[in-house]
């Protein structure tokens, strides 16, 4: 049996990047609810992200989305983030909210629109230089709604040309991570619908191009941990967008809908070396808090990832391997499930306290007065959406 004491040192380096848009108002196509205390500026979003880190020690970076988080001076924003105790992480591009991109961005049939989308990514890379960000994350809304509407094959070539241009612009230490999604907003075909397409595209670019796996972007019943294993096997898993879902891209709190799936994913990450500090696999959240308070929503999320990581680390890999080699089907399954069913909450609370963190970050935040303060202070101005 592996014990908590044995795995505790491996929890030290865990880092989960939080998305700036989790602190803004969001919703569905039916309604975006406003909520008291919502940031009115990028700085206020960063302050909230830093608060999540202060209470958990788990979230040292905040991802930005351009143009949602556009500012005049990114060096000043980087300094501001550092003063708050966090770094600016991944820069996310956005080619889904401009009328020109109605029929596609990087894959559009018109080369001038494709170039416009490429230029947007060049701007993102400039921002990355100012913020010291490593990753440019590209998620494309590109696709079509009706069979025959678009040349789905030519668009793969146009996508590749566009990505090539972006890739060539990257700095030495920078990476491009390409995210795939099965559907939405396009409903007939997406230009990057699955990990196979993402892999084919990034493999043709080079070493600095990787795949981003968003856990909510698959068909129901997809074995996501298998995709994790395969991408790690070929060295192309660049990052995760963690969230959980009941139906499609629900963007709910990671680990809330299916904690066992999160456990299985994290086990394969660990098994495949993706949890090593220098593995190059970035853990990120991609979530929206439509009805719950946003900061506690984020605290809950990073704690869920930590808790399932601890349980996945508890899998006795030697015993598992022995049982597998012996063809002991139920013995191997039992080793796996023993770890999943281990309640690590009390051990984690004690471990946090030993490091000067609150044992129960949810309660500590609720008692801190931060929520009441932002609700009182942030009146006037315009609350940010996403
Ligand atoms: C969209 O479904 C994707 O998950 C992207 O990662 C997107 O950029 C993010 O959700 C912000 O909307
Ligand atoms: Zn995502
Ligand atoms: Zn998504």
From TrEMBL:
Keywords in alphabetical order: Isomerase, Manganese, Metal-binding
GO molecular function, one term: isomerase activity
Protein name: L-rhamnose isomerase
Organism: Nesterenkonia rhizosphaerae
The organism's taxonomic lineage, starting at the top: Bacteria, Bacillati, Actinomycetota, Actinomycetes, Micrococcales
């Amino acid at each position: 049996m592996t014990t908590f004491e044995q795995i505790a040192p491996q929890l030290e380096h865990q880092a989960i990047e939080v998305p700036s848009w989790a602190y803004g108002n969001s919703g569905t196509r039916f309604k975006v609810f406003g909520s008291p205390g919502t940031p009115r500026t990028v700085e206020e979003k960063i302050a909230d992200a830093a608060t999540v880190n202060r209470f958990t020690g788990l979230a040292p970076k905040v991802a930005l989305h351009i143009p949602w988080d556009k500012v005049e001076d990114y060096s000043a924003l980087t300094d501001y983030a550092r003063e708050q105790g966090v770094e600016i992480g991944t820069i996310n591009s956005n080619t889904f909210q401009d009328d020109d991109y109605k029929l596609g961005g990087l894959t559009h049939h018109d080369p001038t629109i494709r170039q416009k989308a490429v230029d947007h990514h060049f701007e993102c890379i400039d921002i990355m230089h100012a913020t010291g960000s490593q990753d440019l994350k590209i998620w494309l809304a590109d696709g079509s709604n009706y069979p025959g509407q678009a040349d789905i094959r030519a668009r793969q070539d146009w996508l590749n040309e566009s990505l090539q241009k972006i890739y060539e612009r990257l700095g030495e230490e920078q990476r491009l991570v390409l995210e795939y999604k099965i559907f939405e907003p396009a409903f007939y075909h997406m230009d990057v619908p699955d990990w196979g397409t993402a892999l084919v595209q990034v493999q043709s670019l080079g070493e600095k191009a990787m795949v981003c796996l968003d856990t909510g972007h698959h068909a129901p019943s997809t074995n996501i941990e298998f995709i994790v294993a395969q991408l790690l096997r070929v060295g192309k898993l660049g990052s995760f967008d963690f969230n959980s879902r009941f139906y499609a891209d629900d963007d709910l709190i990671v680990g809330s809908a299916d904690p066992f799936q999160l456990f299985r994913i994290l086990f394969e990450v660990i098994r495949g070396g993706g949890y090593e500090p220098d593995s190059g696999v970035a853990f990120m959240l991609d979530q929206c808090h439509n009805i719950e308070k946003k900061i506690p929503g984020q605290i809950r999320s990073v704690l869920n990832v930590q808790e399932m990581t601890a349980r996945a680390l508890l899998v006795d890999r030697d015993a598992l391997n022995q049982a597998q080699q012996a063809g002991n089907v139920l013995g191997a399954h039992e080793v796996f499930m023993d770890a999943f069913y281990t309640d690590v909450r009390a051990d984690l609370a004690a471990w946090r306290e030993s490091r000067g963190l609150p044992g129960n970050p949810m309660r500590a935040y609720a008692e801190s007065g931060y929520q009441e303060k932002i609700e009182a202070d942030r009146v006037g101005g315009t609350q940010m959406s996403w």
